[in-house]
Amino acid sequence: MNVLAACTFDLKFTYVLPGWEGSASDSRILDNALSREDNLNAPQGKFYLADAGYMLRSTFLTPYRSTRYHLKEYSRHPPENPKELFNLRHSSLRNAIERAFGVLKNRFPILAEMSRYDVETVSEIVLACCILHNFLVDFDPDEEIIAQVDRDLMNNESDHGLANGAIARGEDGRRGEILRDSIAAQMWNDYITRH
């Protein structure tokens, strides 16, 4: 099952849409999330960081295609241009969702054994676990689980962020390109001034 989710940098889920078959494309699920009554919307003037499986939009910034992305790739060679710096920082910040799901799965092992339940029950279990997770992040954070998830992510960097996803389309995609390019240029200017 696919689950579309958004989270804060302190690993709290702010939007969860479970229930999609595993073969559904990320962009199809996002389109549905944007058109639902309980839709996923970025606050005015804000945007989400999305992996390369999504279409670049003005409120969903994806990494640059055909450009280094993973954090490990930058440990030996620093960024050499605005696109690489953007991807480095995108990867670093987008890692929050990977960490949030890692903590969720470690804290609630039932999530690994969902095949015996119907789709509606699985969706309800996922939502319940996310709600409990958010509560526990505030009131009973398990630093050991978080540290283990961080070690696992460093050792097994996922391919979700690989910059080979969908190309921007339409006016909103063009606005997304302009925004991403502007952010990348500003970050690069700050970076080269400091280094």
Automatic annotation (TrEMBL):
Main subcellular location of this protein, as a coarse class: nucleus
Source taxon at top rank: Eukaryota
Stretches assigned to the DDE Tnp4 domain: 1-134
Pfam families linked: DDE_Tnp_4
Keyword set, alphabetical order: Hydrolase, Metal-binding, Nuclease, Nucleus
Subcellular location: Nucleus
Keyword Nucleus on entry: yes
GO cellular component: nucleus
NADP in keyword set: no
GO molecular function: hydrolase activity; metal ion binding; nuclease activity
InterPro entries tied to this protein: HARBI1-like, HARBI1_dom
Cofactor: a divalent metal cation
Family (UniProt): Belongs to the HARBI1 family.
Protein name per its UniProtKB record: DDE Tnp4 domain-containing protein
Lineage: Eukaryota, Viridiplantae, Streptophyta, Embryophyta, Tracheophyta
